[in-house]
Design goal:
mainly alpha; about 160 residues
Length: about 160
């Protein structure tokens, strides 16, 4: 199976993978927050608080910033995987397994590097239920969908690519 992508297929795959994985992941965060007594806006404000001063901006701006940041991070996650999958054919041949592995890597980086760096007094939290929910989101809702979009993109052809 050919592994490389045309530039149009790569760009389209990054957008599609970002929308699918980003939407699934943020919806899971909303659901988990609601189950814990929180709200979707609270989730978005929490994400926005990573880059915006909650005292300096209003709650709507903070939530909007959180949504933008969430999808920006997801774009990077999708782009990194797609660039790697374009160079390593095995990732597309074993898409589901590769997606599981990528989801585990993403969770590890987020949970053990990014979150403790930003909120050192809050992370990591070793709660089995919390970890299970996060692993589910990163593996099933992010890693696997990105990998499946990457595999699908190897077959995309555009008429302008033939010229």
């Amino acid at each position: 199976m050919e592994s490389s992508y045309s530039s149009k297929a790569l760009a389209r795959a990054i957008v599609i993978a970002t929308v699918i994985a980003g939407t699934l992941e943020i919806l899971s965060a909303f659901a988990f927050a609601i189950m814990a007594g929180g709200s979707p806006l609270g989730v978005l404000r929490g994400v926005g608080g990573a880059i915006l001063d909650s005292e300096a901006v209003g709650p709507v701006t903070l939530a909007a910033g959180g949504l933008v940041l969430h999808f920006a991070i997801m774009t990077v996650m999708a782009a990194v995987y797609l660039v790697l999958a374009g160079r390593i054919a095995l990732l597309n041949r074993l898409a589901v397994l590769s997606g599981v592995g990528y989801g585990l890597v993403l969770w590890s980086v987020m949970y053990w590097v990014v979150l403790p760096w930003r909120w050192p007094t809050m992370f990591p939290v070793i709660d089995p239920t919390e970890v299970a929910m996060q692993l589910f989101s990163h593996v099933v809702l992010v890693g696997i969908p990105i990998a499946l979009v990457a595999r699908s993109a190897t077959r995309w052809r555009f008429t302008s690519d033939l010229m």
